[in-house]
Amino acid sequence: MKVVVVGAGIVGLSSALRIVEDCGTAGLKMTVMADKFSPNTTSDVAAGIWCPPRRKMTEREMQWLKWSQEYLTSLLKTPYAPEIGVFLQSGWIVWMHADFQDPDWKDLVQGYRHPTKWELTHLFPEYKDGFFCTTFMLESRLFLPWVTNRLKDRGVKFVERKVQSLDELSLDYDVIINCSGVGAHDLVGDTKVFPSRGQVMRVKAPWVKHWMLLEGKHSYIPGIPYIVGGSNSTLIGGIRQDGRWDLHNDPRDTEMIWKGVTAAFPALKDAEVLEEKTGLRPMRESIRLESEKKTDPLSGRSVQVIHNYGHGANGITWSLGCAKEVALMVKQLLQEKSTKSRL
Ligand SMILES: Cc1cc2nc3c(=O)[nH]c(=O)nc-3n(C[C@H](O)[C@H](O)[C@H](O)COP(=O)(O)OP(=O)(O)OC[C@H]3O[C@@H](n4cnc5c(N)ncnc54)[C@H](O)[C@@H]3O)c2cc1C
Ligand SMILES: *[C@@H]1O[C@H](CO)[C@@H](O)[C@H](O)[C@H]1NC(C)=O
Ligand SMILES: *[C@@H]1O[C@H](CO)[C@@H](O)[C@H](O)[C@H]1NC(C)=O
Ligand SMILES: *[C@@H]1O[C@H](CO)[C@@H](O)[C@H](O)[C@H]1NC(C)=O
Fold first, then answer.
1. What pLDDT, in 10s, does the model give residues 286-343?
2. If DSSP codes are grouped into helix, strand and coil, which group holds residue 205?
3. 194-204 and 241-242 as β-strands: parallel, antiparallel, unpaired?
4. Integer Cα distance of 268 and 257 in angstroms
5. 232 phi and psi, to 5 degrees?
6. Using CA positions, which residue lies closest to atom 14 of ligand 2?
């Protein structure tokens, strides 16, 4: 069975990884095809905090989150965890409103609690509520190159190419896995997908050991600044622009980030700037993860498409869980195929 994964961000590479691990490589020939690879994907821009969105979860979404946690837990216990960007970090998200229902996933992170009085008074003055917890970090910058090498070792081919339409692939492959992120909007249009542009800076501030995300309108802190301690640098940001597609670092956004972050955390005023990056979060009302049979209009050949895109502002969090469901779908296709060939 010939499988092509379109997309080499965290969603595409996690899918490829879990297919190879859960289905084996016997009877499977896999290609990863993308126009951008690490370090040039949106996934490389992300901070990498494992934190789901703060809304009601469906049962299926809870399952993805659990699968993702299970996989990260197994990685955490390997000797190479730090090299592949997997570690734990604690931190706070705080906001301006006081009525908040604890999320369904609160027991999937460790030590979930509301901020203490001291924290709200001294660390986050004016903010009304929020939460603190310990959770995984998954840094794509380190994880994606590791997955790539692991897949190459298992015989997976990597091809740099922009795919204009599904029809280009339906003659050469039996299964197409669509992990094109915000690119799904263009690939003949899922118009439900739109970008939320983010810009970040990496700075040298090795004393930052927590993540802190501040939300809401504050009297002297502009924007929605955040800081995250990475394994080799500190990430700062605070840009969320819905509907904006351009990928260059905008000096106005640089200034906005700097003003917000230094107003909230004056100790960062003299931090050396190492790098700036911009990425597009693939927003959608919900993740599209489903299988669809298509027939090539010319040859009449049928091909299975598995869609896995639209992971929004939390794709690092979802990726390894959604990837397990993709692997289960591929496993079933392999079984059907081997049953058929025995008939
Ligand atoms: C500033 C910022 C901070 C973030 N922080 C976090 C965080 O802390 N935690 C978290 O969980 N999430 C975070 N996110 C969200 C996360 O980055 C995304 O949800 C995730 O990266 C989406 O992954 P993806 O693989 O779907 O997309 P991408 O990483 O964008 O990958 C898409 C892939 O598809 C390929 N592609 C697209 N169209 C085509 C085509 N037509 N032909 C060929 N190839 C194509 C691209 O080349 C690329 O390889 C953050 C995002 C931003 C911008
Ligand atoms: C990433 O983008 C830069 C600048 O466009 C390019 O020079 C580099 O080759 C790209 N890297 C990969 C792995 O594609
Ligand atoms: C990916 O999904 C989008 C939205 O349904 C679709 O338009 C596009 O053709 C798909 N691309 C591939 C390569 O399957
Ligand atoms: C860590 O950061 C330094 C610069 O501060 C850089 O020289 C080094 O290559 C980085 N190491 C990794 C593994 O990214």
1. 999 999 998 887 788 889 999 999 999 999 999 999 999 999 999 999 998 888 777 6
2. coil
3. antiparallel
4. 12
5. -135, 5
6. 37
Interval 14-54: pLDDT, tens: 999 999 999 988 889 999 999 999 999 999 999 999 999 99
Burial bucket for residue 27 (CB in 10 Å: 0-12, 13-18, 19+): exposed
177 CA → ligand 3 middle, Å: 9
Structure tokens at 54: 């703060």
Rounded to an integer, what distance in angstroms lies between the CA atom of residue 22 and that of residue 154? Answer: 13
Of 238, 263, 283, 281, nearest to 44 by C-alpha is 281
| pTM across the whole model | 0.96
Q: Which of 180, 284, 286 to mutate to test the pocket of ligand 3 (most atoms within 8 A of CB)?
A: 180
Please choose from 40, 42, 141, 152 the residue to mutate so as to test ligand 2's pocket, defined by most ligand atoms within 8 A of CB. 40
CA quadruple 109, 114, 120, 126: dihedral sign: positive
List all residues 6 or more positions away from 119 whose beta carbon is below 8 Å from its beta carbon: 92, 132
